[in-house]
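Tokens for chain A. Residues wanted.
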């Protein structure tokens, strides 16, 4: 008992010591932040000469009621088991006219996943999540006929998804299916625009890009949101610029869709969001920006339909725990029936440091 108390005290004392070290280091970090602020002030003089703040029209509720908008998002999560990776992936396309109508039957899809040979399962489940998102978008376009389709996330997938030499065949197949789904969506969106004027945009809520640092040849990259936040007022956007032509765009996209444009728009008091559109929609930027600004939540600045889709696809820890519980119950049923033995349960155990809350 004494040894247990001593051990607890030692751990607690060590934690307090580390925390105190962190607190003692805060003045240095605060000084570094002040240096960053002074550097940004210096850069803003240069950036403001290049970036033109363009006013965006805001539509009223009555005007918005005539527009049918679809917001799409995907979600994924999982747990590492002793013998497998157990995952969940899903996506939703939420459609309504204006801001008041509710979509009681959003188009959705989800599945459970079990892999025993994937080195980076989080990367693979993200690829599957994105494929589901593109597929529900295609279904929403065909069945709901929106005037505007908004996707939560960039138009250009993460370059880290591109298969490497040591990736599994299963991962390569999932990646190809994801890219095929994206190409089908882009082809359909282009056809719908040509036939009936449907608009399409991808919204990046948390901006980490440094595109203007590249354009201005800044010696040190600065996030676009940091550079543009003091320049743009609520209801203003930047001019269209070309998206960075990275490996994903140059090597993985079909030639007819390799032209991607982007702009930044300040839809609330928070920092600007980034909007990416296909090059063939460049002439529609004013209308797209107006609809995004008009449907944005006044607090977060995120378009309403994306907020709804995000809320309905958030695969949080309780959801993952409940799904894993259901999975374990089915395995236990197989033990009771004699199909499996108790010795077979070791592979379904959570790996060390994985948490399961009932």
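Reply:
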């Amino acid at each position: 008992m004494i040894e247990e108390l001593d051990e607890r005290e030692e751990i607690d004392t060590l934690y307090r010591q580390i925390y105190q070290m962190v607190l003692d280091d805060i003045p240095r970090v605060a000084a570094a932040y002040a240096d960053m602020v002074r550097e940004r002030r210096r850069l803003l003089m240069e950036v403001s000469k290049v970036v033109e703040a363009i006013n965006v029209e805001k539509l009223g509720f009555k005007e918005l009621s005539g527009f049918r908008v679809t917001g799409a998002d995907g979600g994924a999560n999982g747990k590492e088991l002793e013998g497998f990776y157990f995952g969940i992936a899903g996506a939703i396309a939420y459609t309504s006219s204006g801001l008041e109508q509710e979509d009681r039957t959003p188009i959705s899809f989800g599945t459970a996943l079990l892999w025993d040979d994937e080195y980076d399962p989080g990367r693979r489940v993200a690829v599957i999540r994105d494929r589901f998102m593109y597929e529900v978008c295609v279904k929403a376009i065909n069945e709901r006929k929106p005037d505007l389709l908004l996707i939560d996330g960039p138009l250009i997938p993460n370059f880290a998804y591109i298969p490497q030499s040591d990736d599994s065949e299963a991962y390569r197949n999932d990646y190809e299916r994801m890219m095929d789904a994206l190409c089908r969506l882009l082809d359909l969106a282009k056809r719908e625009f040509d036939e009936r004027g449907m608009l399409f945009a991808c919204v990046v809520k948390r901006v980490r890009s440094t595109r203007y640092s590249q354009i201005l040849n800044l010696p040190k990259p600065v996030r676009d949101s940091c550079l543009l936040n003091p320049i743009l007022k609520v209801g203003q956007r930047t001019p269209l610029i070309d998206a960075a032509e990275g490996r994903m765009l140059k090597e993985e996209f079909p030639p007819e869709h390799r032209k991607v444009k982007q702009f930044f728009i300040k839809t609330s008091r928070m920092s600007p969001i980034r909007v990416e559109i296909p090059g063939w929609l460049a002439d529609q930027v004013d209308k797209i920006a107006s609809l995004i600004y008009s449907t944005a939540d006044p607090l977060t600045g995120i378009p309403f339909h994306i907020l709804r889709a995000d809320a309905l696809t958030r695969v949080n820890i309780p959801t993952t725990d409940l799904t894993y519980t259901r999975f374990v119950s089915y395995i236990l049923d197989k033990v009771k029936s004699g199909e499996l033995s108790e010795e077979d349960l070791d592979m379904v155990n959570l790996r060390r440091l994985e948490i399961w809350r009932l």
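The longest strand covers residues 68-80. The two ends are 30 Å apart (CA to CA).
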